[in-house]
Amino acid sequence: MSGWVRLLSSLRLAIILLFLIILLSIIGTIIPQGEALSFYQEHFPATSRLIAFLGLDHLYRSPVFLSLVFLFLLNLLLCSFHQFLGKISRLRSWTKLSGDSSEEENEIKIKLKPSEDHQTRAEAIIIALKKKKYHLKTRTENERKIILARKGYPGLFGPEIVHLGLIIIIIGGLLSALFTYRTSLALLEGESITVPEKNFSLQLNKFLTEYYPDGSVKSWKSLISVIEDHQPSAKAAVEVNRPFKYKGLNIYQISYGQDWDRTAVELEIKTEDMPMRKIILAAGQTTKINSDLRIRVSNFVPDFQVDSSGQIISRSAEANNPAALVEIQSDNQTIFSGWVFYFYPDFTRFQRKTRPGVTVFLKSFTAPVFSVLEISSDPGSNLVWAGSIFMMLGLIGSFYFKYRELRIIIDSSGRVSLRPYARQNRLGLINEIKKLEEDLNLSKFQPGS
Length: 449
Description:
449 residues, 10 helices, 24 strands
């Protein structure tokens, strides 16, 4: 193995790379990702240039982070390949259990004194090992009978399967970091919007809310059409947790709301000279009531609140305290201005009147519903799932299938020498050999020197 390959596959390099990757990941959680440069200049004035230069504002796609991950992937590949070749060599070997000197030092040698003739002893050992689910190979060499018994192959290759799973996960993560596509669209009913960077549009035909018998919301559903070349190419119903798949993209129902900027309100208006009248206006619209009266709805908020600076804001997007800002003019003179409330029609604190007898009530309001759809693709997600399965299988193999290997030599005089190998639970293998000794009715157990 060359020096460069030895360096790239070393455990020390793996530890250093892991430390650096974890350190950068911690930095990535501290520094908000994907913000504009002005954001970092405001919140990190001393290091904003360094953040931009190193790409820490999009850390997981930055050359620094990707280079470290690629080096770790290469380290893992070389290490796993080297270990895999060593174990393949073990499985092909007859003369020794391993070419790894460190493993040789950990092996245990045991000698069993025969009590039967050469052939009978070999047959008895083979039968006993088969009962213990060993896979056997036999050969005769220099008047010696050699029996090679192995079981628990998943345990032998378990670490390599775990490494393979980790490699697949890393490759999937790199693909996701480099090529993931994600955007969201807010669509009103009947509206069509082109999907960014794609050659098709989405049109919302209908947005539906389904309810349980008790009145609670069951689900939201968007009935959409995919428009390509000005023609509908597909129709689908997109529900929560039931995405629509189209040309490698997943379309999810992620939210909905009401466009309060397009609210239409129904008002009841009365003056001393005019009986009660109902008028429907959209926010921002002005209309004439009669020849000398004009009314305008300047604003609408679904959840009225006055903030600490005295500004009128909407506390939320829900219609918890709906209010409309109304202005009425007569002969170009304002005779009424102020907020009228749906739930509190008699509350006049935010109203100003210059003519007595003017009353305004907010009777109803409607706002168009919009649906928020997320369009995304993640080319690495399937690889991440596949890698996770391989890791699980490798861990199961490592912990539940203990690899054991016995090399038994019966010489021409009938003397038996047994050399066991187990990477894990070696005491369990020794106990199994003792039981084998009892089953074969051999002489007293004597560890070899």
